[in-house]
Write a structure and sequence with these properties.
There is one protein chain. The protein is α+β, with helices and mostly antiparallel strands. The protein is built from 4 helices and 5 strands; from the N terminus they run αβββααβαβ. The chain has one domain (7-108): HIT family, subunit A. 30% of the residues lie in helices and 22% in strands. It has a 5-stranded antiparallel sheet, covered by helices on one side. The longest helix has 18 residues, at 61-78. The radius of gyration is 14 Å and the shape is globular. The protein binds guanosine-5'-monophosphate (5GP).
């Protein structure tokens, strides 16, 4: 069940500020408030979806396609196409998800360590 009071919903409604990297009608990409790498950007679709499976199952194909394609734009804005990056999406309790509006983490700017 989607909670309209989650922090990313508030960011989308401009109730909480964010340091924006890219925005269009479908998505918003912004810097994480507590970065885990030199570059740590979050990407969220503007549709109300709790997690990865909710997004890819219940959003229309155009939304899903544009959201993931926008990573291309963001990677160039961050200038990390050549140096590389890691994309993570946490789902549920075992996945360590804290904010229940689907999002991806883009980690870059340095060598990202091993998992866990
Ligand atoms: P999760 O653990 O749900 O995958 O990640 C949630 C992320 O949201 C965390 O990395 C956390 O630092 C980030 N975050 C939580 N609240 C805010 C906020 O108000 N602004 C921004 N920019 N990031 C936030």
């Amino acid at each position: 069940m989607y909670d309209d009071n989650n922090v990313f919903a508030k960011i989308l409604r401009n109730e909480i500020p964010c340091n924006k990297v890219y925005e269009d009608d479908y998505s918003l990409f912004f810097h994480d408030i507590n970065p885990q790498a030199k570059i740590h950007v979050l990407g969220i679709p503007k549709t109300k979806c709790v997690d990865f499976l909710d997004f890819i199952s219940n959003s229309n194909t155009k939304n899903v396609s544009i959201f993931f394609n926008n990573v291309n734009i963001v990677v160039d804005k961050l200038n990390v196409r050549e140096s590389g990056f890691r994309i993570i999406s946490n789902s549920g309790i075992n996945g360590g998800q804290e904010v229940f509006h689907f999002h991806i983490h883009i980690l870059a700017g340095e060598k990202i360590g091993a998992f866990k």
